[in-house]
Amino acid sequence: MGVEGCTKCIKYLLFAFNFIFWLAGGIILGVALWLRHDSQTTNILYLHLGEKQAPNTFYVGIYILIAVGAVMMFVGFLGCYGAIQESQCLLGTFFTCLVILFACEVAAGIWGFVNKDQIAKDVKQFYDQAFQQALMAESDTNNGKAVVKTFHETLDCCGPDNVIGATAPLWREDLCPRKDSILKTFETVNCHKKIDELFSGKLYVIGIVAIVVAVIMV
């Protein structure tokens, strides 16, 4: 009787932990979809400068999280159902999927931390090219001015991190967001800083979520 009672206890504990695992998968999926459809990143990463598209490497980590979240929900269901039915086949499949998911989670976490600086750097280079073309009136032949204005309006910034960028709000009102006063114009943040904040913050979310869930899975 004691052995049977212990077995039932383990069965229901396994069910409870797998249900939590299923919920965690739903949370990861929700966070990943929010990052994928966030208005700031989509406005910027869907831009085209002539035939060149904005760097969208950022989406690699998000797609990994979306896949992991969906599979976690499926695997959590397998674990719950397998525990209730006491099916060794389902539990074996659950364990195999768990190992694969663990590897993907670690990969996504490492990718997020390693690439956080490079992704922001690539986006800043894309912005700088558009800004130079807008200043040199090359926007007559391409959409450089439109690209720059999208960056400025989306991130509420103006100019790169240099002298030209610092003075741009004063002499390029056609490119920079209009401010109510001269003081606020001087307080305008350069776009390099805003790009760093945008992508570094979101990549930290990807990395932290991935590593935390991987630790829980262990």
TrEMBL record:
Topology within the bilayer: Multi-pass membrane protein
MF GO annotations: lipid binding
Bridged cysteine pairs (disulfide): C157-C191, C158-C176
Cited Pfam families: Tetraspanin
Primary residence: membrane
CDD domains assigned to the protein according to its UniProt record, in alphabetical order: CD81_like_LEL
GO BP: any one term: adaptive immune response
Record family assignment: Belongs to the tetraspanin (TM4SF) family.
Name of the protein described by the UniProt record: Tetraspanin
Species whose genome carries this gene: Eolophus roseicapilla (Galah cockatoo)
GN (gene name): Cd81
